[in-house]
Write a structure and sequence with these properties.
Layout (H helix, E strand, L loop, with lengths): L1 H33 L3 E5 L9 E4 L4 E5 L3 H5 L3 E7 L17 E6 L12 H4 L4 E4 L16 H5 L7 H10 L5 E3 L10 H8 L5 E3 L22 H8 L3 E5 L10 H9 L2 E5 L15 E2 L6 H12 L2 H6 L2 H4 L6 H9 L14 H20 L28 H22 L7 H14 L2 H5 L5
Parallel strand pairs: 1-3, 1-4, 4-5, 5-6, 7-8, 7-9, 9-10, 10-11
Antiparallel strand pairs: 2-3
Helix pairs in contact: 6-9, 14-15
The protein binds 2-acetamido-2-deoxy-beta-D-glucopyranose (NAG) (6 copies).
GO molecular function: alpha-(1->3)-fucosyltransferase activity
Pfam family, one: Glyco_tran_10_N
Main location: Golgi
Length: 446
């Protein structure tokens, strides 16, 4: 009997404790909202959290994936979208005038052509993309650190590379790609180049060499054995899947990090980011693949010339102050070694929180509307600049998206600010008809 009573007592206190914490937890939201803690809703599920209070540099905010806060709370000040999951059929509409929209989109221009167009971008107040013009640029998202550029961990000396060329019959150039039909049509370029200089191709695109079996399917990873393989090559083809200002991926940084010279195509302004002004061979400096091949053949017969491209490895030289400053200011990390710094998603959340807190508590004025320089990629171009290159599919996507961006902007920003997908597609078709899209692309519908 005594024991049962004690047990009962324990049970009752336990329930009280649970109830107490429950009240504490729920009132937390209300309590902090009173202290001007903004609520920020991830509209596209991303973090998996329904309640995440974060204290940032300037403000503190509650992040939630619970969409009911968009309409139910006046403390909801911003709504965040992950670019690749952004869908015109699923939006928080009608939009309240005090709702800021934030866009996180670090991915390739080929994924979401909508954001190539200013009328879609201007729906957002703050962005974080690879472009240096975005509100919180992620441009160097594939570079671990300046130290990784000067580290000799994987570095293979010129003498040793020369020996591998002669005795192991390695080609001077490595190509490693398994996405074979991107907007840039890079394979067409490589095919042409390989007529004039040997290329070892390990990926499924233009494959002529086998990867060791344990490395298959991980071409984009940083497996140490893969890095060792790349390091053996004098040159590595670093051709992005699409062209956009500041769209620079591991295709550039991986060879630079291991000490193979990148033959680069992608961001037209890549020179702005490389360690020294002679760290890459830039495809755009040559009018044909043959000219580029001749240049590379020339470097191959001149070790002094070759080593000019490796001053970051040989002499630890990184003279690009823009690169150094960007890395000094970057708060986020990119891999497990940098876990303590948080990811760019963490940084993006606090960036939004701080901007919003400042706006509401101090400035209370100012205009924040994203524009073309936040993403805005051009009509897809091919690496091989010839009229025979067939790039129609991607070009068509781009033009279609321009119509979608136009209609989306109008429907969201003009009352009533809500629409059905029938409204949307109907308006897009009329718009594309007006702009001669169908005549140019020969389609009745899409
Ligand atoms: C919270 O915001 C209101 C106006 O929105 C302001 O009057 C008040 O002073 C703020 N409180 C704090 C603690 O900043
Ligand atoms: C979302 O929040 C509402 C209101 O605060 C709540 O009633 C609901 O249970 C929450 N939903 C989830 C999935 O947490
Ligand atoms: C690189 O910079 C050095 C010194 O700043 C300069 O002398 C050289 O001409 C530059 N090279 C190129 C290719 O721009
Ligand atoms: C946020 O963006 C919307 C859409 O462009 C705009 O109407 C609103 O004024 C912007 N908010 C601020 C504070 O600039
Ligand atoms: C684009 O927006 C940025 C702010 O994000 C602003 O500094 C820049 O002047 C704008 N560019 C144009 C062309 O309006
Ligand atoms: C592509 O080639 C055409 C002529 O063949 C030239 O007018 C144009 O400037 C080239 N574009 C690029 C980006 O090189």
């Amino acid at each position: 009997m005594k024991y049962i009573r004690i047990l009962l007592l324990i049970l009752v206190s336990l329930s009280c404790l649970i109830l107490y914490y429950h009240i504490l937890y729920t009132s937390n939201v209300i309590f902090h909202a009173k202290e001007n803690t903004s609520i920020i809703v991830w509209w596209t599920p991303f973090t998996g959290l329904s309640y995440n209070k974060r204290v940032c540099n300037y403000g503190s905010c509650i992040f939630t994936e619970n969409r009911s806060f968009v309409q139910s709370s006046h403390d909801t000040k911003a709504i965040l979208f992950y670019g690749s999951d952004f869908s015109i059929e699923d939006l928080p509409l009608p939009r309240k005038e005090y709702h800021w929209w934030g866009l996180l989109h670090e991915e390739s221009p080929k994924n979401q052509p909508l954001f190539d167009h200013e009328e879609a971008l201007s729906l957002f107040n703050l962005t974080s993309t690879f472009r240096r013009g975005s509100s919180m640029p992620l441009t160097l998202q594939y570079l671990q650190s300046i130290d990784s550029l000067t580290s000799k961990h994987y570095f293979v000396s010129t003498n040793h590379k020369n020996m591998l060329l002669k005795e192991n019959h390695l080609s001077p150039i490595l190509y490693l790609q398994s996405d074979c039909n991107p907007p840039s049509k890079r394979d067409d370029y490589v095919k042409e180049l390989a007529k004039f200089i040997p290329v070892d191709s390990y990926g499924s695109c233009l494959n002529n060499k086998e990867l060791p079996s344990d490395l298959k399917g991980i071409e984009s990873m940083n497996h140490p054995e893969l890095l060792k393989l790349i390091a053996k090559y004098k040159f590595t083809l670093s051709l992005e899947n699409a062209e956009c200002e500041d769209y620079i991926t591991e295709k550039l940084w991986r060879p630079l990090t291991v000490g193979s010279v990148p033959i680069y195509w992608g961001s037209p302004s890549v020179a702005r980011w490389i360690p020294n002004n002679e760290s890459i061979v830039h495809v755009r400096d040559f009018s044909t693949p043959q000219q580029l091949a001749n240049y590379v053949l020339n470097i191959l017969s001149d070790d002094t010339l070759y080593e000019k491209y490796l001053s970051h490895k040989l002499y630890g030289k990184v003279s690009n102050t823009i690169l150094i400053e960007f890395m000094e200011q970057r708060t986020w990390g990119i891999n497990e070694d940098q876990e303590h710094q948080g990811t760019f998603v963490d940084a993006f959340e606090c960036f939004i929180c701080d901007q919003i807190s400042k706006f509401h508590n101090v400035a209370k004025s100012g205009s924040f509307v994203a524009n073309k320089s936040h993403y805005g990629c051009p009509i897809p171009k091919v690496v091989l600049n010839s009229s025979s290159a067939n790039n129609e599919f991607w070009e068509e996507q781009w033009h279609k998206a321009s119509g979608e961006a136009h209609v989306l902007n109008q429907l969201i920003l003009t009352p009533p600010g809500v629409f059905s997908s029938d409204d949307f597609y109907g308006n897009v078709i009329s718009y594309l008809e007006k702009t001669n899209f169908f005549r140019k692309h020969g389609h009745e519908e899409f």
